[in-house]
């Protein structure tokens, strides 16, 4: 069974197909994005930011109008294909050479900035409306960067401080994790490049940051070394030994002698004060008396004769 369509029906079919194709292309082209933390200059001064009244934002709107900040997520260039340094002119990195965003290239040291710690990890959040495949690369300005000069390619480190390919879009944001080098202080710029792999577009943005040294981790306390002369227990105080008994000066061997402490000391039984046995003393005395008596009797006899 053949189907015959009138020219009007065929035209309607082609028109419908064209409408679907346009809708698909519009959906692809609507996949925009920009860093929200640390916020890009376009985000910070736009409706999603909190710094529209800052001096830098007011000056940028006055000079170029508010349209650039209303389209904070549309700063993109087609068909770059990784040739960023060739396609994006020096001193126009923040605007990517797009005239609508040229005020973002203004060399100022008062752009709204996010505080970060040098030598510490960080996470860049990148808002996007539709998931896309591609690679994020985040570059930091070199040591000695001068915010008074429009950003140039030579102001950026050669290697990114963060990069990721095809991250998951969660809660409307991509998360790009990296680490900042040590020894950086003051104003710097994080330059983010998002190169899509499923569209021809590459997105560019400048996020101003203020770096301060990371606080060093507290070192563990070292154990206390043992003392070379450990403390010793105080010696137990004992009572002083009693002083030896003091004999009398005459040496007659009195029954009681006084010690230095004033307490009388009694000689042991059977001894004199000089330690001579009492019995021996008594015997010697008896012998002396007997000899004296005998001598006296002998003398009387001789006298009578």
Textual characterization of the structure:
This protein has six helices and eleven strands. With 305 residues, it is α+β, with helices and mostly antiparallel strands. The protein has a domain at 30-213: chitin-binding protein cbp21 (Coagulation Factor XIII, Chain A, domain 1, Distorted Sandwich), CATH 2.70.50.50. Strands 2, 3, 5, 6, 8 and 9 form a six-stranded mixed β-sheet that branches. A three-stranded antiparallel β-sheet has the order 1-4-7. A hairpin with a 4-residue loop joins strand 8 and strand 9. The longest helix has 27 residues, at 278-304. The model is unreliable at 1-5, 7-29, 238-282 and 301-305 (pLDDT under 50).
Characteristics:
single chain, about 300 residues, alpha+beta, Coagulation Factor XIII, Chain A, domain 1, six-stranded mixed β-sheet, about 20% strand, disordered N terminus
Radius of gyration: 56 Å
The first-level CATH class name of the domain at 30-213: Mainly Beta
CATH architecture name of the domain at 30-213:
Distorted Sandwich
Q: What is the residue-averaged pLDDT?
A: 77
